[in-house]
Amino acid sequence: MSEQSTYKVTKSDEEWRSALSPAEYAVLREAATERPFTGEYNDTETEGVYSCRACGAELFRSTTKFHSHCGWPSFYAPSTDDNVELIQDTSMGMVRTEVRCANCGSHLGHVFEGEGYPTPTDQRYCINSVSLKLAPTE
User: Annotated catalytic, 126?
Assistant: First the structure.
């Protein structure tokens, strides 16, 4: 886990605020979390590609999405490991692994391991819907 000092897509706070809705900005740029079971993609089963809502970089594919019943969209792997950045998060009195877009540094959610889900990786990328944009497969 490491934190990149530079990203391919960089904008000032003012530019991010003008490009994103208040809810998107809060999650993507301030690492907020949307309320569970309220996100647009929580129960979506549409086939396609999930990209970063801030910069459009591909992050996940529907083929790795699964129902974890945790309240947020869950994936067992990113489309490629290079598309996400994993960073140790010690906020809220616990140690977790934050998931960010490797292209622009936007906060996406967290990844958890060893929870016993029947997935090939035993990982759950717990991702805020508001940080994603789904492009359905035609």
Answer: yes
